[in-house]
Amino acid sequence: MSISPSILLNTDLPLPLFIQGKVRDSYDLGNHLLIIATDRISAFDSVLPCGIPDKGLILNQLSIFWFRQTAHLMPNHLVEAVDDVHCLDTFILDEDRFPYPSYLAGRSMIVKKVKRVPVECVVRGYLAGSAWAEYQQYGTISGLPLAKGLKQSQELPQPLFTPTTKAETGHDQPLSVDKMEGLVGKALAEEMKEKSLAIYSFAQEYAKARGIIIADTKMEFGLDNDKLILIDELLTPDSSRLWDAEQYKVGQSQASYDKQPVRDWLVQAGWNKEPPAPTLPPEVIEATTIRYQQGYERLTGRKPR
Predict the structure, then answer these.
(1) Would residue 10 count as lying in a domain?
(2) What's the CA gap between 196 and 230, in Å, rounded?
(3) What count of other Cβ atoms lies within 10 Å of the Cβ of residue 205?
(4) 292 confidence band (pLDDT: 50, 70, 90)
(5) Are residues 274 and 138 in the same domain?
(6) Which of 114, 141, 158 is the last residue of a domain?
(7) Same structural domain for residues 178 and 233?
(8) Is there a cis peptide before residue 276, judged by omega within 30 degrees of 0?
(9) Domain range for residue 250?
(10) Class of residue 193 by CB neighbours under 10 A (exposed 0-12, middle 13-18, buried 19+)
(11) pLDDT tens digit string along 105-153?
């Protein structure tokens, strides 16, 4: 399994920058956006000074895979996967054309430009992460009471929809269903909940057949002429906890295909979770790349290209 020595942390294209997120850089193409998944990695709301080789390639291609797999459940913003940089000629005006960098192929996509709904739709199927911490202290998840005696990583009786705010900076904050309805309207809130749970259930069944448990995930939606569609990324190791089903055992943390090893190392290193974040050691960087690659291959049945 080869690991690229190059680490793409930043992009710099002669196009209007639409937004630079923790991991993705988006450029304005008029009615469309060019979204590039970089190798940047974030943890505890901070971007680390190092990257994870090939991470952006895997995140982009996995999102494209899931957008296509779930299109029968929910339309999404994907217009074209940038497998060949020359496809950009269709979307970039003649006067704005330039020699497209080769790194765009494989790690970028053309999407519809839509109005983002300012809510992160989180679905939890297992008791892990911040949900486990809250349950230990209060017996709840996002304020919802649960039965007593549940264990770490235990499957919940049914998946829970636990939305949060979508913060531009800092931490996302939990939202009650009532507050979400007040923010976006009752009908839209109900549709987002219904679609989030349906997509999670579909993906969970698909992934389990391939030896992976999707413990939880988060999704984002946008409005395309008032029609709700999926946007951003979908069911990637950055937006989901992906566990190895063969090694799954209730009552402990799980072997994962996501960035949990990065979080674990940062905690063990004693980082106080305030910027600046420390640089990961080479062995953690390599191990994380391998986990991302293995997760992608198990889910899709092919290697990232």
Answers:
(1) no
(2) 10
(3) 10
(4) very high
(5) yes
(6) 114
(7) yes
(8) yes
(9) 116-300
(10) middle
(11) 999 999 999 999 999 999 999 999 999 999 999 999 999 999 999 999 9
CA dist 80 to 85, 91, 100, 154, Å?
Answer: 11, 10, 16, 38
Q: Do 208 and 174 share a domain, yes or no?
A: yes
Considering its fold, how many domains does the chain have in total? 2
CA atoms within 13 A on the CB side of 245: 13
Q: Are 64 and 15 in contact (CB under 8 A)?
A: no
Q: At residue 115, what is the residue type?
A: K
Q: Is residue 260 part of a domain?
A: yes
Give pLDDT tens digits for 3-58: 555 568 889 999 999 999 999 999 999 999 999 999 999 998 899 999 999 999 99
SS3 content of the chain, % helix, strand, coil (to 5): 30, 25, 40
Query: Rounded CA gap, 164 and 141, in Å?
Result: 12
Last residue of a domain, one of 84, 114, 144: 114
> Angle CA(177)–CA(179)–CA(180) in degrees, nearest 5?
60
> What's the rounded Cα separation, in Å, for the pair 15 and 18?
9
Q: Can you point out the beta strands (E) in the chain?
A: 17-20, 24-28, 32-37, 40-43, 46-51, 78-81, 108-112, 115-116, 119-126, 140-141, 144-145, 155-161, 164-165, 212-224, 227-231, 240-244
Q: Report d(CA 155, CA 102) in Å as an integer.
A: 43
| CA gap 275, 170 in Å, rounded | 11
Tell me, yes or no, whether 72 lies in a domain. yes
CATH number at residue 201: 3.30.470.20
Dist CA 228 CA 192 (whole Å): 8
Return the bridge partners of 232, or none. Answer: none
Residue 21 lies in a domain: yes
Pairing of strands 164-165, 212-224: unpaired
Q: Are residues 23 and 149 in the same domain?
A: no
